[in-house]
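Key idea: predict the complex, not the pieces.
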Amino acid sequence: MKHQEIIFTNSVAQAIDAVAQSINAPKTFVLVDANTAQLVLPLLQRESQVVAQAVVIEMQAGDINKNLDSLAMIWTRLCDNGATRKSLLINIGGGVVTDIGAFAGATFKRGIRFLNVPTTLLSAVDAAVGGKTGINFNGFKNEIGAFREADAVIISTSFFGTLPSMELLSGYAEMIKHGLISSEECYNRLLDYDISNADDADRLLVLLEESVNVKRRIVEEDPTEKGIRRALNLGHTVGHAFESLAMHRNSPIPHGYAVAWGLVVELVLSHLKLKFPSVELQRLASYIKDNYGVMAITCDDYPQLLELMHHDKKNESTEINFTLLDKVGSVHIDCTATESEISTALDIFRDLMGI
Amino acid sequence: MKHQEIIFTNSVAQAIDAVAQSINAPKTFVLVDANTAQLVLPLLQRESQVVAQAVVIEMQAGDINKNLDSLAMIWTRLCDNGATRKSLLINIGGGVVTDIGAFAGATFKRGIRFLNVPTTLLSAVDAAVGGKTGINFNGFKNEIGAFREADAVIISTSFFGTLPSMELLSGYAEMIKHGLISSEECYNRLLDYDISNADDADRLLVLLEESVNVKRRIVEEDPTEKGIRRALNLGHTVGHAFESLAMHRNSPIPHGYAVAWGLVVELVLSHLKLKFPSVELQRLASYIKDNYGVMAITCDDYPQLLELMHHDKKNESTEINFTLLDKVGSVHIDCTATESEISTALDIFRDLMGI
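Result:
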């Protein structure tokens, strides 16, 4: 996989113009959703010459529209507006826009150049790096897609002012995960910053850069997810199960909240199986409880949660796979746990959360 | 791009079983079209254990069905039949099946393993090697796709017995092109073989292996078509224009026939611009006329042909790009010709063809 340029800046318009100039495309397209069309695009059209002159493709917002219909609409708009192999596509938005836009870019005429400009914390820290592109299909998330990195990603905190705190916290859970798998120093800096206010955009940009670089290093080492990249799954085996459980209850929870609670359960497992220090476990549990509240589960939910973990696509055998830690920054991939160990961990999680 | 395994054999069933065993997929799928479902699949189901146990996905035959509907059908069938990231897809058919099947394989769950088993000469020599996958979209050929090679390609001449001679000649034009861009020896061996009978399947397999290896060497040197891979465009700039002209006249011609005639015109240009020997030019012109007949054009068609060459996706500037030869085996990419030079070449082509 080629090296993807990642630019951290709060001067987004200038960065777009500089990157577009170096790419020198004869024609440029901008993909936005209804939200970024309203909140971000007008500003960039004023400040960036490239965005001002680009053909705008607007899709409907929301994960439900990360589908084949939207993808075909994007392909058609590119085609009808004379996109060639040398055209440039700039994806401006959250994870939905960067995922589907990157897949459209990876497949239009077998691949054109594209930039990602994430406008949410979650897409900045997660979706814009790693080359995972795609759409939901046939009722499954990200069922169709490709591994393909953007030519450049422009990451900024300047759009975050208008984001609801729930979105900020959701993205921050992925940053905390990156802290946990990288180093104590990085992790401590994250717990010291007050994300619920997020009023120091420049300090957040520094933390975000550190966090994205954790992910980038891991992805570059293992682009197709055969080994160490699974470190990034920390919190996600249980987190996905929480997310699906909430979906089945018809009260969906944000992905990052599910990951936050998943991190606590998986650190309990790390404590049980690898002696992860209990003082660190309690510190994280309090932090998550204070900022994210609690995931309301009872022991009646355990069978369904275990079933969901079995069905997770990373777990095809009869045992359930986890990424665990023996201390902050020290990762063990391909750990397994029995259903009884997971049930014990869920008991302790409920204790820690006071539910 | 990883190295793609290409197996030349007339024991296809055994080769499929051997490759599938080394891949060791928990579940295998076979993609066929209505033709190969009838003519090839029953034989392979009898002789190959892997094919016998595979889930069969059948699509409609013909280039018109290399579209998004067929692709979505293939994705859905994979999904509904429990395909995972570890599944194997075996594409058995002509270029339509290998193109769309490879694209489905490249994008289902961001990429699963797949084999191509071309059953026509054209797909054996051309479509199955080089990693070009895709579908037609919005009225354009191969508008959507990806560069992704199969895990293995199994090439055989044993299915060719039932092919109409028009299909054999169509594929053979691509082999002649490979001869022209590689060496006099290779080229002479091709002109010495009687493809219209094609009754010596083992000798044809040897020629096919040599021809595929010409393409493979070039593709490996330049997987994303930035330089020398354009050698493979020899005959295609004019050939595509002939193909489109025939389409507009509502009397379509096979791709390989268009390439055969395109080769003659482009060797005329090579003669005019690079002193390609006239004796070799006349030899090819006679061979093409004897085997393929003639492309009926008059000077009234020149403006439309020139317009079509301008619109070819490899020709974005005002001049028209060609790959030319100064002698057999000696390639010059990125040559340009003026409209007046091309018109002269078309005049000489009509002379050589006696039209």
